[in-house]
Specification:
By secondary structure, the chain is an all-alpha fold. Helix content is 44%, strand content 0%. The protein contains 3 helices and no strands.
């Protein structure tokens, strides 16, 4: 979506959980943590908007609902 605002993977996970009505208990597995992962990455569509006038039509929650709906089919 490149809104210029970041969201942690944990927050994204809980947003998905809220949309499904599930409240999981999370636990990180240190064996699966990769040292080379980028800890913070935020998309910025400023140049695209300036060049094309593009603006997002959907919120993150709209997109997450679409993902969940696609998985339900």
């Amino acid at each position: 979506m490149a809104t210029g605002e970041g969201i942690s993977l944990e927050d994204l996970f809980y947003r998905l959980a809220d949309l499904t009505g599930v409240r999981p208990i999370t636990e990180a597995d240190p064996d699966l943590v990769r040292g080379g992962d980028i800890p913070h990455l935020v998309g910025d569509a400023t140049k695209l908007r300036a060049a094309t006038g593009w603006a997002p039509r959907y919120t993150l929650d709209d997109t997450l609902r679409d993902v969940l709906d696609a998985q339900a089919d």
